[in-house]
Structure formats: C-alpha cells, structure tokens
Amino acid sequence: MRLIHRVSASNSERATMELNLRQRLILQCLGLEGEQSIAAIGQRLGLSPSTMTGLVDRLEEQGYVKRRPHASDRRVTLLALSRKGNGAFARETDWYRSLVDEIFGSLGEDAKRVVLRALEALRSSNDEARASAA
After folding, report:
1. What domains can be seen in the chain, in order of their start residue?
2. What global pTM score does this model have?
C-alpha cells in the first residue's frame, strides 16, 4: 500500500501530467530512440494512423514535438522531440528513476539482479511476440 500511495502522490511531480498515457508513450519512444517516422511509432505502440495523427497534432500544438518531411521519401513524416519535449523527457526519466530507486532501494544486489533479469525476460518475450505478430 505504501508503494501505491507513493506512486499516486509523486504523480503530481511528473513533468508531463497534462499529457495522456499515449502521448507520454510517444515522448518515451522519441526520447529513447530518437527521431523516427510517425508510422513506426504508431506500429510500435499498436496505434492506428488516425489515432497517431490526433495525438501528434496535440503534442505539436503543446510544443513537445516537431514534424519534418523525410529527405528522400515525401510520403514519410518524421517526428522528433522539441526543446520542450527533451526537457520533459529528461524530467520524466528522473521521476521514473527516483520511483525505481525508492521501490528497489531496500533490495540487496542479488535481489535486484533477479528482478532485472525477470524484467529483461519479459521485454524479450514481448519483443518476440510483437515480431511474430507482424
């Protein structure tokens, strides 16, 4: 219960509170992987092109992202974080780190390694499932 309370209480400290979950996921994709096509982000997140258009429109209006045409393929629009988006991503990353530190801070090093291996296994199986579905 303490963990749930901490997450709820610290949520107000997030840099991206005005954004919904899907918009925050788009910022995370861009922050972690850099500039990419809107279609690639949508595919990765399992979102339709029309849903992505609306989400990206709002992110652009709020100043978090910027669009630009692909240099050699006019059909492709690339998306990148703006200065505001980079700042929000950095603050969001710090927020996640402090939350993880608080959650796992009391674990010993062996227990942390076990948790990290389990999380990596989950991520790998999710990546494999996504690849086989494509």
Report:
1. 2-107 (1.10.10.10)
2. 0.74
